[in-house]
Write a structure and sequence with these properties.
Length: 133
């Protein structure tokens, strides 16, 4: 799945972020965070939910999430005060606020609850899109 937004694209399957045609290095956890925010857009995710998704079964301080958000904003050319991509929901969490589209070769995801297959692992539910996994 490739998601296009502004001058960058996120290729989830290849685990690659491309900005202005060039591959951009991001930490694995920052990649996971961006993927999560994009998949759930425009829904705001709580800090607790994000920590549970990014660091399952691991205790991390709240600053770890803030550091990943700062890494993503720096990488994407975003700003906290005037966000184009990642919006802070004060005292709650974060949301992806940019306009993103799937490229022509990527099938559009089905609405939540209409997928054919759903994986459940511990407290997480993962909806699978049609296609080969």
């Amino acid at each position: 799945m490739r998601i296009l937004c502004g001058d960058w694209a996120l290729d989830v399957a290849a685990r690659q972020l491309v900005r202005s045609g060039n591959g951009v290095q991001v930490s694995p956890k920052a990649f996971d965070l961006l993927t999560t925010l994009l998949r759930e857009r425009p829904r705001a995710l709580s800090k607790v939910e994000l920590r549970e998704r990014i660091w399952p079964d691991t205790f991390v301080s709240e600053t770890n999430l803030a550091n990943l958000i700062a890494e993503l904003r720096s990488t994407l050319g975003d700003e906290a005060r005037q966000p184009r991509y990642i919006r802070t929901v004060h005292r709650y969490g974060y949301a992806f606020c940019g306009t993103a589209t799937y490229d022509a070769e990527t099938p559009q995801p089905q609405a939540r609850g209409s997928a054919h297959v759903q994986l459940v692992f511990r407290d997480h539910e993962i909806t699978l899109l049609p296609g080969t996994h």
